[in-house]
Write the structure tokens for this entry.
Amino acid sequence: MRFAEIETFRALMRGSSTRKAAALLHVTQPAISQSLKRLEAQAGMLLFQRTGGRLVPTPEARALWIEVERVFIGMDAIEHRVKSLRDFGLTQLELSCFPAYGLGFMPRALARLKAHRGASPWPQVSLQVLSSKDVRDRVAMGISDFGLMADELSLEGIDHSTFSRFPGVVVMPEGHALARFKTIKPEQLAEAAFIALNPEDPSHQRLEAALAPYGVALRVLVQTPYAASVCEMALRGLGVGLVNPITALDYAERGLVVRRLSIDVHFTCILALPAGKVLSATARDFLSLMRLQLAEDEKRMQRYLR
């Protein structure tokens, strides 16, 4: 049966006359009559009894009606899904992020997404804060739409780009002896109790390499894998540390003192994506908002570095 005949059948079941069916489909009554003839010829059975100008469905027509409506309900659902995807994109967002950006930056970016979408439906969001290795693995397996990770691991098997690259900042508690300086020099770090990232962390290795020409050895008080822990310990007076300025931002707003370092020890954040996968409209939209949030965070941090 052709689609036109099926539409005629639905209209006749609703209207019970060729006149009403014609009005529903915006066609002429003769067109409805011809379509009904073709429908019954193709079906090989009588579908309507002609009684006093009315069309009364046969039992066979009523049985067919159930199947036809089931199909059209499915088509309506497909049409609704297409419209939803066109207007709002895929309504699911699987994110993985290492702690340096997962504890402060990503919540800020998600708040921006909520404001951006307004009354539009909120996507189903999963934010997993994990080690960089776990972020890479989830992205490589296609579990996450994308992830943010440190630059300490192999990038084989994933698509990637640099999301951010910032010089590290020295963090310390209020009232610390180094707080009166706008820029901290290598030899000044040698005088302070130092809260270090773990030795295998690339930024820690870059710091030691940058200090070596000055003959500076750090007096490490505590080692930790997380920049957020460095900030928290510095805030509580344990010593000074070197972290990504994006991580330091939340703590600066709580009173952590942030200063520039005179030598360049950078922190790089990698955007990891499943190899060859096309991002959904929702993921692309959120990624754009993340970049706006990053620029805003960088601008805010500059106020603490004056």
About this structure: Residues 59-88 form the longest helix (30 residues). The mean pLDDT is 89.
